[in-house]
Amino acid sequence: MLGKSAVARQRFEAALDSLVEEIREDNHILAAILCGSLSHDEVWDKSDIDLVLVCTDDKKTKTHDVALVADDINIHTTIQPRAEFRQRLESSVRNLFGHSVFAKARLIYSRDPSIDAIFAELGKVGARDSQVQAMHAAQHALGSLYKARKWYEIKDDDAYTALWILTTARALAEVEVGLHGEIVDREALIDALRLNPDVFKPIYTDLLERQVTRQALTVALDAIDAYLEPRAEELFAPVLDYLDEAGGDPRAARDIAHYFQRNYDMEHIIIACEWLSDIGVIEKASTPVKLTTRSQVDVEELAFFRVKW
Q1: Arithmetic mean of pLDDT, 94-114
Q2: Of the CATH numbers 1.20.120.640, 3.30.1490.20, 3.40.50.150, 3.30.460.10, which one belongs to the domain with range 4-121?
Q3: How many other CB atoms are there within 10 angstroms of residue 55's CB atom?
Q4: Alpha-carbon dihedral of residues 44, 45, 47, 50, nearest 10 degrees?
Q5: 8-56: pLDDT as tens digits
Q6: How do residues 173-199 score in pLDDT, each as one tens digit?
Q7: Which residue(s) pair with 64 in the sheet?
Q8: For 91-95, which contacts have Cβ atoms below 8 Å and span 24 or more sequence positions?
């Protein structure tokens, strides 16, 4: 006898097949791509189907969403012109969320060899992609870690400290999975626990399965520090390279932020710079700045530099 998940999968697959038969008759739809749980995970009665349809290029047609239905199952569908679809995948950093959605997707059918070629490459994650993905995730982890320490050290609230540690663990899981060359997705915490239980047990499962105590929080915070600090130069190598290019002169926080926003689509990189300064990898300084083009008074702007011995 089939279990509930297997029964649900049969129903969802049948609904999808029925819809795809209709879609195939539309020559303007070049490819159908199944994303979400039905493509690679378990489904249940409350699941839905996520579908991306690549259409022919048309100046009047832009990327848009439509909610379809088959056998009373909601099918969230994105229709995207071929040029926009190709640009979306070819320009994205692999192993960030936009890429991983398609890396685990199923290509149902395609009328265009170029789409087939893109899909054949989706599972491959290069060294630069892994570096950028890990840097993004590590920066998110640092933001949550600072909040966890505030609730631990200043507000003395164990429950909220645990909440922020779990948020940090989620970001660190993306670091761990990405550095192992695996696809990062919503199940990153489960994958990270498999890959590195010594770290993710105290910062994830122990906080959920056991009573949260002050000692448990101390152990978790220490585990996070012990994980991040030895990896600082690896995770934030682009930051160090950018500072090194200045030859030891300070770079203003504004310039650093603009550079990483433009080249890595990263906001709040200064959080990482503050942390790197806290652990002694880089140095903090200041540079003069005028607040407006007409200002006659200089004030001091936060800056960072690196001295290579």
Answers
A1: 77
A2: 3.30.460.10
A3: 19
A4: 100
A5: 899 999 999 999 999 999 999 999 999 988 888 888 888 899 999 999 9
A6: 999 999 998 888 888 999 999 999 999
A7: 79
A8: 93/129, 93/132, 93/133, 93/136, 93/265, 94/122, 94/124, 94/125, 94/126, 94/129, 94/133, 95/125, 95/129, 95/130, 95/133, 95/178, 95/183, 95/184
